Amino acid sequence: MENNFDSLIGKYPYPRKIRHHASSNLYIPINQLKVVDEFYPPLIPKEIVAESFLNKKAPNVMDIGCGKSKFLFRYAFGNPQDNILGIEVRRLLAEWAQEVTTQEQIPNTWVFWYTAVNGLDFIQESSIDKVFYFFPDPWPKQRQQRRRLFSVEFLADIYKVLKPKGKLYLATDCDYVHDFHLQTLKKSGHYEYNTPIETEWNLPKTNKEEFCIEKNIPIFRLICSPKK
Ligand SMILES: C[S@@+](CC[C@H](N)C(=O)[O-])C[C@H]1O[C@@H](n2cnc3c(N)ncnc32)[C@H](O)[C@@H]1O
Fold first, then answer.
1. pTM of the predicted model, to two decimals?
2. Ligand 1 pocket mutation pick from 23, 61, 111, 135 by most atoms within 8 angstroms of CB
3. What integer pLDDT is reported at residue 1 of this predicted model?
4. What is the pLDDT of residue 18?
């Protein structure tokens, strides 16, 4: 296994036709849909989660909405003791990350094609050290806002899977999404949260974060601790 993911990036071009936003059904829980077609990602059976990783261990870190997965791979290469599970609703991107994992025999990454609106029941309770939720799609228009994954229910799902000393990391480049995160955290009541100082963050960059840094776009970050 290479110890530096960045040296591999050019070897695996991203799929050409990644739809920016997939069909609106993908953001609706399966039990609220009348028709579930083959474009809707399957639920994840609990039994296959640890089996999916080449090292056959269960995940202790999650990246929800991992997108083009640079962060996920960088994190995995820098933290070989951790197993990081990515969740991504865009099928081609999830499959791209599975291909990189398989071809490079990376023991500690796996990415499921899945929509996180269906919850995290496939993860063992109190088993996760870190959940990353970075640069979610902002869905700025009123009629789109129900597509946002971040909600009191989503925070309850994360609360359940986090260890008592686990952490939820949030980042966004949109001030209104940041405000929405703060309001939803307050409503949830399950977390203490703070804006981290730079040394507290110390994490690899995501694809979107690199874009923001290049364009000088400010980033809003939060670290949330479950009150357990
Ligand atoms: C703007 S991208 C950011 C990707 C990555 N975290 C980064 O920082 O570069 C947001 C990602 O979240 C994914 N996403 C949105 N809703 C999702 C859901 N319900 N379940 C899983 N992934 C979702 C999108 O497909 C997209 O890849």
1. 0.96
2. 135
3. 45
4. 67
* Nearest atom of ligand 1 to the alpha carbon of 21: 25
CATH code, 206: 3.40.50.150
Averaged pLDDT for residues 141-154? 89
Residue 119 CB–ligand 1 contact under 6 Å: no
What domain count does the chain have? Answer: 1
| Nearest-CA residue for atom 26 of ligand 1 | 67
Q: Which domain holds residue 96?
A: 5-226
HEC secondary structure over the chain: CCCCHHHHHHHCCCCCCCCCCCCHHHHCCHHHCCCCCCCCCCCCCCCHHHHHCCCCCCCCEEEECCCCCHHHHHHHHHCCCCCEEEEECCHHHHHHHHHHHHHCCCCCEEEEECCHHHCCCCCCCCCEEEEEEECCCCCCCHHHHHHCCCCHHHHHHHHHHEEEEEEEEEEECCHHHHHHHHHHHHHHCCEEEECCCHHHHCCCCCHHHHHHHHCCCCCEEEEEEECC
At residue 56, the pLDDT reads 97
